[in-house]
Predict the structure.
Amino acid sequence: MKTQVLIIGAGATGAGIIRDLALRGLQCLLLDKKDVNAGASGGNHGLLHSGARYVASDAEAANECAEEGRIIKNIAPQCIEETSGFFVAVAGDDENYIADFPGACQKCGIKATPIDSQTAREMEPNISEKTIAAYEVPDAAVDPFMLTLDNVAHARQLGSSYMRFSEVVGFDIRNEKIETVHVRNTQTNEIFDIQADWIVNASGAWAGNIAKMANIPLEVLFSKGTLLVTQKRLSQRVINRLRQASDADILVPGGSVSIIGTTSVRIPDPDDIWPTVQEVDAIVEEGAMMMPILDQTRYIRAYCGVRPLISQPGASDDRNVSRGFSLINHAQHGVKNMTSITGGKLTTYRLMAEKTSDMVCDGMGISVPCKTHTTPLPSTTDGRWTEPGLSPQEWMQHSQHQDVMLCECEMIPKSAVDYIISNMRSKHGNTDLTGIGIRSRVGKGPCQGTYCSARIASHMVDRGDISGTAAIEQILCFLQERWRGQRPLLWDMPMIQSELQEAIHCGFLNLDGYLSK
Amino acid sequence: MSTETDYCDVLVIGSGLAGMAASFFALDQGLKTIQTGDSSPLQFYSGFFDLLGVHPIADKKTWENPWDAMAQLCQDIPNHPYAFLSKDQILKAAKLWLNFLETLTISYDYIPNKNINAITPIGSQKPTHAAPKHIWTGISCFMQRQSALLIDIDGLKGFSARQIKEALQNDWPELETTRISFPNTSGEVFTGHMASALESSSVQKQLADLLLPRVQRVQCIGFPAILGSHYHQKVCENLEQMLGKPVFEIPTLPPSMPGIRLRNAITQGLTKKGGQLFQNSVTHVEPDGKYGFIATSDHKKIFAKNIILATGRFMGKGLIANRKTIQEPLLQLPVYQPESRKNWHDKQFFNPKGHDIHQAGIEVDNTFRPIDQDKKVLYDHLFAIGSILAHNDWMRHKCGSGLAVATAFGAVQQIKHSK
């Protein structure tokens, strides 16, 4: 297999890079050992930062966010909900920080409109009675899955390719150049080779592992951030706590839900991440200071992402140092056709892709300028089922009598699952339930996959996508992945729901008896 | 609204399998019995009658003989609810219960002293002891590897004959499949609707006509559990006559027709025996020095000499979890539980060992009366039965229905004894 540029890692950055390079006329191949947004790109708030969050700690990052936010809103409106955002301080918060905030925003060119506390509470009834200051800023919500899927889809339209379940396991290096990349199909364990003129390591938290295979020293540290999804949307706007970045101080609405987070915990291994009971409790309790309803509301899922940090000595809080990105040309390490890009924020993914692509083109002697800041990102159907609450509207508008509702919580009909499957098949690897989950809201409603996992598995068998035996394995795998996010928040209704799930899948279907059988 | 007052010997709180069984045993003893609870729990019930399929669960060890399994279980887990009963008691409870169901035209089949593997709608196999007659027909057909045709239906989600065939291909290569459109339907179809429709003889005929050309080569014919609702037995007989072969059902994901049939039949049967069944839940219970207990349910006051708590776990709201603890909401009974929420659930959902929270529940003495931390009986006339009991993981042991019925029997025996 041959390609001009091989990009490792299908997060937002990798997807941004393949599109950027494809727009410059290069033929590229994007690989992921799992699937799109399997790392930090899928484990974040989905916040398109206005930049106000960083005005006090990092003016450069704030400027970048402000500029990039404007660009993304222009080029990819389908992925953005222009919610606007509040920064609110409650009694007891640092008054110096509050006082400095409007000036700092102004310096970075970020519009921050003061709102008196009472008006703020009329505009957002769920914010605390103890609100002492509020500013409105141009924050927005972004759907990271739609964003990545649309970037990949556009690159594919332009002649590039994307392969799922493809893990880089080694490089052949000759004359200071990577000649061959060895790749393992993680579903079949087959090894195959790829020749590329240039290699981009956009594997986020795994960037150190990839670099190591090319004998390049790249120390990456891991900071885990946990977030909670509420069952209902709790605000119209993004709500930020007006203080130095800390736990549980950003609430982002997305479609019909809200997301509160995060935490910041240093961890040794990015492949073993679990949202914990302690983190969930800390988020609920801390978040409730800003939004008291967070103590009462129903949560449907917890999840976490890993911020990759390029080792920076002397940093006190990972959140405060992690936002800049690192772009490294490995010629200095004796590998002349490889670039690593890591760190950064979802909001600046396009900028990171631009800078990386510039470096790649420079190295390859290509002088076509970047087009992504002006070329609209085509809205494709790849990402359309990812938005919370969108599917029911579509269903109401285009209801087909013959269709069957496979997921009732999120109203995903059979026709949508069929579409997602046909789309997935063109991206290498077998059709899998987890992949359908990534590309839709399947399993993300209150029932957390209790019914839809079994129904979709049956449907996949009927279609001939998977065997009856594989269906059992896929249900086990899918429910385990959902479980990761359910386990720390099982009380009240979710506890009842999870008991039903276990009663059906263990008590009735005996799937506990099939584990690793 | 005025307050109505009722008096009874036994108030059964809960309308799942344990509550239903308790009402039956109490009525059978001639006790004046009131049962409260809405009609929803049994719609989740597959109809399989488990005694004990797996022990120790961590080893996923299955047993041919449920009584051998039970003897070992009682030795290993002396505070398991089964350990408070003798084999004779459990056997008698199961017999009385299944006989009662037989009188309600829901007959169960089983092989004495034997567990068998039942077939689920995803083609997995689950150890159980007994099953309703027309589910058993399929199990028996499977055990003898007879040829069968399994039917699935356009628009019925979560039931694929092909999936079941493929999952069972090594164990039941003689299984064939076919898909039909249920008469007079299009688009999405539901088990309850089809079950009701099939009570009409003309729909039965339409279905049989549809199938006749396809069933020549097989010995029996399987369906998702849709063969009738109130007149299930009759529907099966008619179809068997028209098709000339035995028919069987495989239970579906909830809502489950075998469970709904049981609910309807048992409700009728208990009422016939003189039981009073109230749909409302009990919201408040207090001890009453004179009568025993006063329970409040909607606008009713129920004076009960004995209370049997069969409120289930979290689904039945017999237990309530908040962020810090697990509570019993009606009488604030002490709940045995893991030390902190951190320990409630394991990282692996399907971990064969089970989750620590399944050990949580109400601890009782050997007559099913709740006890405190010092093992002291809290009320002489209060009993807890079924899945609310501590130290039982019915989902992994595959012992839910047996446990429900046997503990109900145990509690009623004590009531009778102390009368």
Summary: Chain B has eleven helices and 17 strands. Chain B has a mean pLDDT of 96.
